[in-house]
Amino acid sequence: MTDSGNSTPPPAGVGAETGLTSAGGLAAEIEWLRGRTAHRHLLDLATGMLAAQLRLSPTDAAEHLEALAQATGLAPADLAADIVDAVGEGAATMPGGPWTAAADGPPETFGTRLRIATSARYPGETRRARRVVAAAEATDTVDEAARTLLEGGLAPHGADSLWLWRGTEAGCLRLVGHAGVGASEAVAWQWIPPAAPEPFRAVLKDGVPVWLDDGPPTGLPLPGASAHAARALLPLHRRRALVGLALVGWPGPTALDATVRRALTGLVDVAGAVLGGAETEQPDAPVLVDVLDALARPAMLLGRGPGSGAPTVIHLNDEAAATLGGAPPARDRSLSRAFPLVHADLAHLARRAVATTRTQRAARLPASARPGETTPLLDVRVLPAGGGRAVVLWHTVGDVGMATGRAVARLQSVATFQDTPDGGGTVWSEQAYAMFGMDRTEQPVPLPGLRGRVHRDDGEALTELLTTLRERQTGAQTVLRIVLPDGTVRHVRVAAEPLLTGDTVTGIVGVFQDVSDSRRTEMALTATFDHLTEVRNEAEMRHQMALQLQQAIIPEVPGLQELPGDLVVAARYRPAAEEYRVGGDWYDVLRLPNGQVLVAVGDIAGHGIDSVTGMVALRNAQRALAFTGHPPRHLMGWLNEVTLRTGGGTTATAVCALYDPRDRGLVWSSAGHLPPLLLRDGRARLLGPPLDLLLGAEPGYAYHERRTGLRPGDTLLLYTDGLVERRHDDLAAGLERLAREAERLSGRPPDRLVDGLLSTAVGDTDDDTSLVAVGVRGRPRTR
After folding, report:
1. Are 639 and 701 a contacting pair, CB within 8 Å?
2. pTM for the full predicted model
3. Using one digit for the tens of pLDDT, what is the confidence trace for 369-394?
């Protein structure tokens, strides 16, 4: 049977090989597919009823349904709705159960009901209601079903909320689905105990609806908009058994007449069948979810993923869900499913926001436009929300104020401008007129119109600027020589940002800066070759000094260093591929007077001689503090204070461990560093560190510590991010590759192990790398 009765045509591009669609197109396509699913469900339901009533095969029943549609002049979907209602009309109310079709009746009885159903006395409202029911039955989760019933069937009768509770073996009611309800209110009414308010008990006891036109009796608490708002409580049945309760709410007092009651009873009756769908977990931050739902811009709440994996989507507000074509399914809330093109960037921003407790920003994700890509996320903000959560805010339409601010940030601004595609809405600030030698009464010139005022050799630069703004849809800047009416030439830097609506450029905003003086200065400096050579040599000397200083302070341990407690240690330092990126990595292995062994690895943010000198200060401070004999958590707390007072605003990550030879116990603390890797019996395992802050992030912070017992044959690896980080990959994937490579090289002594890992290192960021392997002598346990 065909789907000719589906009155909604597919959105443009559905079924065609159009590559990656925009978010708006994807949303339309998903909505259309959901409509087709509900449409197909209704046709299948009617076909099954025809097969049962007329004793036909499914194929014959489908052909019979199509023939009936042609004979009656109805669309197949409308006829299917009438058939389902006709069977329902002949059903009997079962004691304590739902309506059931009289499938064993004679064919002529069913034919009579069918003729009645297809007659003119059945209004379109009945068919619409049946389609709403079919759409609800075709959803994946109880929340989606509740939303479908509310928006498609209950809202036309003035209702603004729907609650669905399912009964439990303990006699309680558990909220499994809702629509039009805030997260905080849903959490408050998640459980209804056996000693429920009287209207609940009445419905559960008698199995009949309770109608409250003016709200519940005074003082009786019930979910709803206000004390006097109308409510309807209805029993939910499934396979003739009472399985739950539904509550429909209105914004105020409402006369629930017989027509409304009859319509609501029919619509909510299907809810008993959908209670078996997947439940949506209640968020652990309901107030935060309500705040995001109140925003008029897309917003998302992310939570910590399992293990060290990528963050997961906890909640999308309606605006965000609309841009994605709906919320992600409960079975897969991974960030990569919701945002397949920018999930790595969002995960990186979320991790940084949580680790640093500071807002992270991105003007656009992805950074620039490419043919066929999805609608970008604009003006992205990622805020730490506590408990490992992060809030992501973005726009889908370019904001003039923010785009202007970004353009101004590219320069030391002088004058601003704004263009529209047709040039009819060009606006200049007052300073721009003097810059172009124009009177304030003259019309401002749109950006493309500057071609007649630009020096002939700079026309290509203006073309490239316009191409970047319009086609690549990303900000850009260039310097143009502007020829004034009196023949004077001025050097004007232009920095601009596109305004986007979806994936269309709807305007350009930016700034002009007169850089004529600085250009003359640059030409003078260019002519002074000796001075430039001196500056270059000085910079080279600083880089060489930083590299030599780092190598002098942190020499490699070429062989095996033997330490108390049957320890053997090998350490390697690999400098950055480019000298200008020499960084602040350090490691230390030191025997202490009390017999313990200090093992530490750290990494200061940034590169250059300032990072190296800061590294030296922290490494020496850690060495001195270790001689006090205090545990790692105290050492890390003191090192945090040292960073705050001597680091000049810098931050660092570190792992500090003390090994006791007497019991082979390793007590360690981490300040936002990568997890140590333990290689035991040929298996590699990442030791999850305490989730503590970076050094230099917060004064007075109390760090935690953990204890790990080592065994003969164990090898512990401490390392910095240069070993595993990749530019376009998730950090968790790099850690997994390191673990696999360590297992492949297991059995080697520490010096050969670190050499093998460095030779096959998975990192590709050209950052420096420190790697320490601590092995415990002895024969490992046989696997």
Report:
1. no
2. 0.45
3. 776 666 788 889 999 988 888 999 98
